[in-house]
């Protein structure tokens, strides 16, 4: 969520964010799920993409990087499951908004993924999301400082 231009190309990659060690991990925005389907689905989707684009150097390098830096990715990769990441729903704990539902929808037969962020209607989180939509996260006294978030309590 937010303006992706503030992040590098590498930081905008979901597979890298999920499996990479260190502070750049997606864990800086915790993801709540009812099951453990995301990681195997990402690996199966990458394997499927590699079949479709075997000469894509960036894709090959990404898989090599993740296999060498993440034991979990390497284990899932070695299982050999192939398949597109068709759709998924997860809850992301955004530092300024709170719990945001994230749906990933796919267009059959192509590589397009549509990511939709929603919050419960009428909730406090909906008010916070509206604030971000209207202000782009900039308060009257300046941009939101990095940290736990504008709406968090100590």
TrEMBL record:
Domain of life of the source: Bacteria
Pfam families linked to this entry: MLTR_LBD (PF17765)
Gene3D superfamilies hit by this protein: 3.30.450.180
Domain MmyB-like transcription regulator ligand binding as annotated: residue spans: 2-130
InterPro entries the record matches: MLTR_LBD
Protein name (database record): MmyB-like transcription regulator ligand binding domain-containing protein
């Amino acid at each position: 969520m937010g303006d992706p231009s503030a992040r590098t190309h590498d930081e905008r990659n979901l597979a890298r964010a999920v499996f990479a060690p260190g502070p750049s991990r997606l864990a800086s925005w915790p993801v709540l799920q009812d099951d453990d389907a995301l990681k195997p689905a990402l690996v199966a989707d990458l394997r499927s993409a590699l079949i479709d684009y075997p000469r894509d150097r960036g894709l090959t390098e990404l898989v090599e990087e993740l296999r060498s830096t993440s034991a979990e990715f390497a284990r899932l990769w070695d299982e050999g499951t192939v398949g597109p990441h068709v759709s998924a729903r997860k809850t992301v704990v955004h530092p300024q908004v709170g719990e945001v539902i994230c749906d990933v929808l796919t267009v059959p037969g192509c590589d397009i993924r549509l990511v939709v962020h929603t919050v419960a209607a009428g909730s406090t989180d909906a008010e916070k999301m509206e604030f971000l939509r209207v202000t782009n996260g900039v308060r009257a006294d300046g941009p939101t400082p990095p940290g736990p978030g504008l709406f968090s309590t100590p």
